[in-house]
Amino acid sequence: MTSALLPVFQPASMLFEHGEGAWLTTTDGERYLDFGAGIAVNALGYSHPHLVGALEQQNRKLWHLSNVYRIPGRERLAERLTAACFADVAFFANSGAEANECAIKIARRYQDTCGHPERWRIVTFDGAFHGRTLATMAAGGNRKYLDGFGPAVDGFDLCPRKDIEAVRACIGPQTAAIMIEPIQGESGIRPVSHSFLRQLRNLCDELGLLLIFDEIQCGMGRTGYLFAHQEAGTAPDIMSLAKGLGGGFPIGACVSTRHAARGMIPGTHGSTFGGNPLAVAVANAVLDIVLDEALLAEVRRKGDLARAHLDDVAGRFPDLIVEVRGRGLMLGIKTTHTSQEVVDALRTHAKVLTIAAGDNVTRVLPPLIVTDEEIHLFAERLDQTLALLSKRAETQIARQGHY
Ligand SMILES: *Cc1c(COP(=O)(O)O)cnc(C)c1O
Fold it and tell me: Contact at 8 Å (CB) between 188 and 360?
């Protein structure tokens, strides 16, 4: 089918018209159980009344207000976000990539302000994903995304995700900062160990470097902690957020300690749309719910429940499932089939939505408000779909045997 859209995406064919909670309904009235949540964006599911209410209320007042005027909702969002973590200041953008661009700029500017203009490079990791702008593509270092677009933006040194000595070897006199996702999402739900995160913190302190955590996918309660690093008992100097922050409304944030952001004076950064009144109204409504420790405890409990179900299914299909991994409601199923095959099979045979990732991993990212019944249903449908896939594999082997 030809379309007037730039063909960079290959969307599935069904048409969704509306959604509620963890469910999406097509124009034909078919209901799909969404355990992908728009890649962790629809953190509170679809049509959450508190979010809808916040948007409708702001909708009648003001949509856009230039940064040359104060936006009280934005000041409040910054105060609440920073009060809930290590940070002192926040900058709002429209997307994750932009939040990371801000993080990179803060780190470079910090070193410059400290009398080290030669320190401008950032150490990043094998399997990282930081976005699709020219700089964040280079930060991720994925050849698939970089090839054919000319020389990658300079200033990023890709390091193997191994031990701390390997990281030390990647650091040079030009290094300004280390940037990492506490749980790599795009490359296949690969959690970084808590001790490794703490070692990175120590290394940065030892060498005068800044530590940046990209929590765009793993943050905002996804792991059962408001921010994934909080479980590790350590903290970065700078952190980027987006995805779940707006519960479906586009907004990104870069939060930082005041010390790390010391170089960011008026005029050094900006955005026309970032943190507009609509976006911050919805993000504040998201915080009303996600800042609640009781909700986070529920995410941990439901994460354990989902994990137990997945381990159970994995035990029944040892030839199909290689590994189940992740934390909280950020889970991945590594299979012998490609993740796209599993995602397609779940969608077409079981009306269950999941998200493909690297390393043959199917991402399981239900909304944080998912119910126990929906988790049981998901496990049931996954089980049925894998039975189909394994039967298909058996027939293929049998057929090959005939020839
Ligand atoms: C999605 C994602 C990004 C990019 O966010 P966009 O809003 O698509 O620019 C960056 N880092 C991580 C970890 C992500 O998951």
Answer: yes
- Between the CA of 49 and the centroid of ligand 1 the distance, in Å, is 26
For residue 403, the model assigns a pLDDT of 46
Q: Is 215 in the pocket of ligand 1 (CB under 6 A)?
A: no
pTM of the model: 0.97
The one-letter amino acid code at 256 reads S
Residue 61, φ and ψ in degrees, nearest 5: -100, -70
Distance, in Å, from the CA atom of 374 to the CA atom of 368, rounded to the nearest integer, reads 12
Tell me the sheet residues that pair with 333: 324, 362
- Alpha carbon distance 37, 46 (integer Å): 9
Q: pLDDT tens across 172-184, in order?
A: 999 999 999 999 9
Ligand 1 closest atom vs CA 131: 4
Q: Which two tokens stand for residue 59?
A: 């909708």
Sheet containing 23-26: order of strands: 16-20, 23-26, 31-34, 352-353
Contacting residues for 399 by C-beta, under 8 A, at least 6 apart: none
Is 216 annotated to bind a ligand? Reply is yes
Q: What is the pLDDT of residues 281-310, one digit of tens each?
A: 999 999 999 999 999 999 999 999 999 999
Q: Is 95 in the pocket of ligand 1 (CB under 6 A)?
A: yes
Cα–Cα distance, 377 to 366 (Å, whole number): 12
How confident is the model at residue 2, as a pLDDT?
81
Domains within the chain, CATH numbers bracketed: 16-41+293-402 (3.90.1150.10), 49-290 (3.40.640.10)
Q: Which residues, 6 or more positions from 278, have their beta carbon under 8 angstroms from its beta carbon?
A: 55, 58, 59, 63, 64, 249
3-state secondary structure of 14: coil
d(CA 342, CA 353): 10
Phi, psi of 81 (to 5 degrees): -65, -45
Provide the residue count of the chain: 403
| Beta-strand runs (E) in 141-226 | 156-159, 175-180, 183-184, 190-191, 210-214
Q: How confident is residue 69, by pLDDT bands cut at 50, 70 and 90?
A: very high
Whether ligand 1 lies within 6 angstroms of the CB of 222 is answered as no
